[in-house]
Amino acid sequence: MRAWIDITAPAHVLVFRPLISLLRERGDEIEVTSRDYAQTIQLLELHGIDAEILGAHGGRSRLGKARSLFSRMHALRSWARGRSFDVALAHGSHELTMTARRLGIPSATTFDYEFAWLQHQLGCRAATRVVVPEAIPPERLERYGVEEPKLRRYPGLKEEYYLADFEPDRSALDAWEIDPARTLVVVRTPPDVSLYHRRSNPLFPQVLDHLGRNESVHAIVLPRTPEQRDFVRGLGLPSVLVPEQAVDGQSLIALSDLVVSAGGTMNREAVALGVPVYTTYGGRLGGVDEMLIRESRLIPLSDPRALDLRKREGERRQVRRDPAEMLDLLLSGL
Questions:
Q1: Calpha distance 214→308 (Å, rounded)
Q2: Strand runs labelled E in the chain
Q3: pLDDT tens sequence across 13-59
């Protein structure tokens, strides 16, 4: 089988890493496309995944996003035509499913946040299969034209599948002089360029200031963009550490005492790895976060003083699921 995978954001590199390995172990041929966005290219290189880079993120404005959409779809169509793909796979890339449909290629997309309205209106309608967590109520997807047999659902979190073979690398901390007596906190910045997160997040700067001035803390801040990195560094907070480039974020999470994230993927990675995690997300909560909050595995934060900045002791319970089950769902439309 010849498969085409489109990776458009840093988290998608992690989702598809084990799936690409499984496909290649079966003898399938894989070609990967990507775009220049945040740390996506660096993470592809970090995980040894070769990709054809086509297009870039359109920025914050709707006009920029629209221009990027049409120009990238044209580039994808030109690149994919004549390559005889049997299937096309993506994590929320509406450019891939729309292009694949036009070229007559069966496609599957997966995601775990159901309120990215425009993205799903375009991508889900064009896809052959839509694969989501069971935590997302099916009725929330009907507005995107998703119902049986197009809809496929899986138990748990996607992070439990792609982290199934994960073991932390302690050298991930070697870039800094870490005092083992201090509480290690991993912090993820807000998704400022996302259309579904247009409101500002006033809580996040408060959290950063609270942690950055605490002498009993090391706060490793993982920015999404160079602009965010420069902004955080410019604050000059003594307890804040900022990586120069893409890092092994999963090892940092596993080695930390707690995580504070304004996004989604890092929250769920912490949950999957058994690390306490607080969310400062300012947008509408999706079904997955609603479930995790109900189960007390994700803690909503409204005041930085509520952070429990203790050192954690004892073994953490990681949840592992078989990525082959995820792959079967994605390929069910063939």
A1: 13
A2: 2-7, 29-36, 52-56, 87-90, 107-110, 129-133, 151-154, 183-188, 217-222, 240-241, 258-261, 277-279, 299-300
A3: 999 999 999 999 999 999 999 999 878 999 999 899 999 999 887 76
What pLDDT was estimated at residue 195? 42
Read off the tokens for 101.
């449909």
Dump the DSSP string for 198-239.
-S--THHHHHHHHHHT-TTEEEEEE-SSHHHHHHHHHT--TT
Query: In the 8-state DSSP scheme, what is residue 331?
Result: G
Under 8 Å between Cβ of 52 and 79:
yes
Q: Which amino acid is at 17?
A: R
What tokens were used for 320? 């592992």
Which residue type is seen at 28?
Answer: D
Q: Is 254 helix (H, G, I), strand (E, B) or coil?
A: helix
Structural tokens at position 127: 């896809």
